[in-house]
Amino acid sequence: MQPNFLIIGAQKSATSYLRACLAAHPRIFMVMSELSYFEDPHYDPARFDEFVALFDASGEATAIGVKRADLLSRPECAPRIHRHLPGARLIAVLRNPADRAFAAYHYAIKKDRLPAQGFERWLANRSEAMASDVIRYGFYHAYLQAYFDAFPAPRIKVVLFEDLVARPATMIAQLYGFLGVDAGVRIPPPKRRVNKGVYNVRRLRVRQLMRRKSRGGPGQRVQGKLINLADYLVFRRLWREPRRGPGDDARRSLRDIYGADIARLEGLLGRDLSAWTGP
Fold first, then answer.
1. Strand 156-160 to strand 89-94: parallel, antiparallel, or no bridges (unpaired)?
2. pLDDT at 272 over 60
3. Is the pLDDT of residue 94 over 80?
């Protein structure tokens, strides 16, 4: 069976949590790994059958899907998805881009892709920041427009992260309906947070140093799990989490960066997003 829906993003906007909630429905099947077929730099249309084979275990499910948060910010993916899956339904979760950038920055440190120097200091180097995916992935309008150009609007469901956090049961029920499965099914939320972020820079710096020392050595995968265990048992108790959002100066800078794109997004979605541009 071919997939008939995709969660396309946005990155660091609770898409892993959403996948867990949707996959718990008895009529929904989701591949739990993230598949990069559509964004592969060596994308080959002839290998689509290999991609489809990954969904062979869907059984009696009527909604068959995959989550790949990077799809939204890759314009080349929209026509590729439409080429192979023209009838697919698409789900996008959008988070205030300032908060998303803050979360993405700390995630990049966790993965040792950026130095652990503090968000405000990093953002002050505007040329470096603007060139990074941390900032680039927050320009939702341009990315979403490519999907609206490729797919009929009724096949695209845009959910705000803030709504998902405030009213999870209501939003999940709406998505069940969007996917054509029984919206009356009530699934308990995941018992623990999925893909939980880490925001303490000192804690992230220690993780980063440990990752570098273990890189390339034998048993690297096992060492990575040990680092995660040490982080959970020790580091998170030593260094408590600070506020989870950019400071006032950084937030003002991010409003300047994203303001025009948010205004265009309001027009595309027909939604008031003033909460993202206010103080």
1. parallel
2. yes
3. yes
